[in-house]
Specification:
Blueprint (H helix, E strand, L loop, with lengths): L1 H26 L2 E6 L2 E4 L6 E3 L4 E2 L5 E4 L4 E5 L5 E4 L4 E4 L9 E5 L1 E5 L8 E5 L2 E16 L3 E15 L4 E5 L6 E3 L7 E3 L57 E6 L4 E4 L3 H5 L2 H13 L5
Parallel strand pairs: 9-16, 11-16
Antiparallel strand pairs: 1-4, 1-6, 2-3, 2-5, 5-8, 6-7, 7-10, 8-9, 10-12, 11-12, 12-13, 13-14, 13-17, 14-15, 17-18
C-alpha cells in the first residue's frame, strides 16, 4: 500500500514546488534575459557575480551591463525594464504600485503591460518626472547634463518635487496642468568619478592590456526610498489617445524642450528595434 502512495506523493511535491515558483516569479523582479556580460552585486554578498536567467533581484542589488551587453528585467505584473550596454542600476525597496530603481549610468527602456497601473518616475536635478499609462512605453538616455526622453505610449508629468507639474503626452503639446508629484520610482544619479570594475577583471577600455589594474568596487549607495505622499497623485481622467512618439530634452533645473524626432531614423536604431522585437515576443505589443 505504501509503495503505491509514493508516486502520488512525489507528484504532489513537484506540483507544489512549481506553484511556489510561479507565485514568487509573479511578485518579485527577475532578470529574465541577460545578454553577454551582465553582472550583479548582491546587497548581502561580496563582489560581482554573473547574472543568470530567471535570477531574482532584491532591494540593494546592483546590476551592471558591460560593453556589447544588455539585460532585461521582468517586473511583477509582467512589465519589462531593459538596460542597454554600459548601464548601472540599483534595485530599490518596492512599495504598493511602484518599484523604485536608481540609475547611475546608461539608458533604459520600459514597456508596461496593459492594465498595469504602476507609475515610473525619474528624479533628476531636484525635479521629478513620472511616466504612467495603460501599456506605456518609453526610453530614457542619460546625457552629460540632461536627460533624453522618448515617449512612445503613455504620459509624462514634469515638475519640481512637491510642486505643480505639467503633463506631457505622446503627440500632444506639453500644456496640460497636472497635480503634484512626490514619488519617484527611477532615481537618476550622476555617474561616479571612478568606474567600478569587477575585482581581478580589466575594464572594457583596458581589455587586452596586461598592465591594467583592477579597481575595487565602491560601497553600494543607499537604496532609493519612496517619498511620503503629501498630495493625491491622480492624473487627469481625460487624456488624448495619441501614440505619436515624442522627444523631450530635460535639464537639471527642471526646464525642458520639445525636440524633433525623426520617426523613420528612430525605428532603424538597433536599440529601438531590439526592444520592439522583445515587446512582441513578450506579448507587450502586437506585431
Amino acid at each position: 500500500m505504501q509503495a503505491r502512495l509514493w508516486p502520488w506523493l512525489i507528484c504532489l511535491l513537484l506540483a507544489g514546488s512549481a506553484l511556489a515558483q510561479d507565485s514568487t516569479a509573479a511578485t518579485q523582479t527577475r532578470i529574465t534575459f541577460p545578454l553577454n556580460r551582465v553582472f550583479v552585486t548582491k546587497a548581502m554578498g561580496n563582489g560581482m557575480d554573473y547574472a543568470r536567467f530567471n535570477m531574482n533581484v532584491a532591494p540593494g542589488d546592483q546590476i551592471h551591463t558591460k560593453k556589447l551587453s544588455r539585460c532585461e528585467l521582468t517586473l511583477p505584473g509582467g512589465s519589462a525594464l531593459r538596460m542597454d550596454e554600459k548601464s548601472d542600476l540599483i534595485v530599490g525597496a518596492p512599495t504598493e504600485g511602484q518599484e523604485p530603481f536608481l540609475l547611475n549610468d546608461g539608458r533604459l527602456w520600459v514597456s508596461m503591460t496593459p492594465g498595469d497601473i504602476r507609475t515610473f518616475g525619474i528624479l533628476f536635478g531636484g525635479s521629478v518626472y513620472e511616466f504612467e499609462g495603460n501599456g506605456a512605453a518609453f526610453r530614457v538616455e542619460r546625457q552629460a547634463d540632461s536627460l533624453k526622453v522618448v515617449l512612445y505610449r503613455g504620459y509624462l508629468a514634469v515638475g519640481k518635487k512637491g510642486g505643480d507639474s505639467q503633463l506631457l503626452t505622446a503627440g500632444e503639446k506639453p500644456m496640460v496642468a497636472a497635480p503634484q508629484i512626490v514619488n519617484a520610482a527611477f532615481v537618476m544619479q550622476a555617474p561616479a568619478e571612478e568606474t567600478a570594475v569587477e575585482e581581478g577583471m580589466a575594464d572594457d577600455s583596458t581589455a587586452g592590456d596586461s598592465t591594467a589594474m583592477a579597481v575595487e568596487m565602491p560601497e553600494t549607495p543607499a537604496m532609493p526610498q519612496m517619498a511620503e505622499s503629501t498630495a493625491a497623485a491622480e492624473m487627469p481622467e481625460t487624456r488624448p489617445a495619441s501614440r505619436t512618439p515624442q522627444l523631450f530634452i530635460i535639464e537639471k533645473n527642471g526646464t525642458y524642450t520639445e525636440g524633433t524626432l525623426d520617426i523613420e531614423k528612430d525605428a532603424q536604431s538597433d536599440w529601438v528595434d531590439w526592444n520592439r522585437r522583445r515587446d512582441i515576443y513578450m506579448g507587450l505589443k502586437k506585431p
